[in-house]
Amino acid sequence: MQRIYILIILFLTINQIYSQNINQSKAFGNSIILKSDILQEAREIQIYLPTNYQNNSNKYPILYVLDAQRYFLNGIAFQQNLTWENIVPEFIIVGINTDSQKRRNLFYKESSKFIEFLNKELIPEIDAKYRTLDERIYFGWEMAAGLGIEIFANNPSLFKGFLLSSPTHISKERLETVNKRLKSNPKQNLKLYSVLGTVENWATESMFSLDSIFKVHSTKNIQWKYNLSNDENHYTTPLITINEGLKLFFSDYEPIRFYTLKEFSDFGGITALREHYNNRGNRYQIAGDVHNDTKRYLFMLSYRENDFEIFDELVKEFDGKTFIANNFSNATWFYRFTTFFLTNNKLEDALEILEAGLLKFPDASILHFEKGNYYKSIGKIKETKKWYKKAIQIARTNNEPELEKYTYELKKL
Questions:
Q1: Tell me: domain 261-412, CATH 1.25.40.10, correct?
Q2: Is the pTM of this model over 0.85?
Q3: Lowest mean pLDDT among 146-150, 186-190, 241-245
């Protein structure tokens, strides 16, 4: 009797865990039932729509995740971690659950049937039902990664990105088709990222052959990156494949930040910057303007490197005075830019930035002090004293360390 009781408890626990896994996936999206004539079965397809999907009419890239019962949530976690900082765009996730027995046939022996299902049934259904861009990404693990290699070679227009984790079943035939595809000088712009652990010795030889083919037939428009990792194994490679692969695929999306003006110059300056953002806008169907973060970094960088020529060029290109007024939220930067203009005899520009700063920060002593400096530069000492005194009053009230400096400059007049 006790044994029966234990078995009942065990059965209920397993059932609860299984149900919890299913419900967790569904909690982060919904599903559709797709009746497939090609596969001769009804397929449940998981769908995750971006947070803002219902709030606009935008079109989105799509990540297709095979073995979604394991990896569907990885794509969601990646997106939710990075979209809020504009590092990657929002994207739709399509999850294809697989049966452990059926996948062995569909991903290898009957691979043409599964590819036909993707090409003629699933992808057209998704494109018809949702607002999609022609920016499809394929993720597959193990046999599904090997299938991804076959799709790349025989159906390269299906996906623009391939994330291949621990690929297996990379047969001689598949290697030959890849070699043939690359020798034909394909025109599509594609990115492939693959990860294999060194402990996966059953696949290292075939992956070495595949990597060699890509290196021999290296082309500018096909980006192949292979990570043979000492740190990963057969079950951890999906984590790094999805994270690093999506970062590679969306590498042109994150706002550019230059850390030196030489880096900016080597990039091609403003002309190349505008071209980059125009291409970015066309790819993702978003505004093609230079991102505000990039502009902000460039203004700060030109000041820090004391390059007024570049600074002045930025002001002219980006309506800089209006941009500074609207996009800087620290009184210190208004002070610095005003000083930059003053020291380069741009008095009207200096005053315009200063007035914008005082409008945003009426109690900033440093801006009142700088207003005094402005009047000092044009010889109006009476006005200079007036603004220095205002700066001293604010600094004294707030017990600011700059009080001594302001007092000293007033006494010098």
A1: yes
A2: yes
A3: 186-190
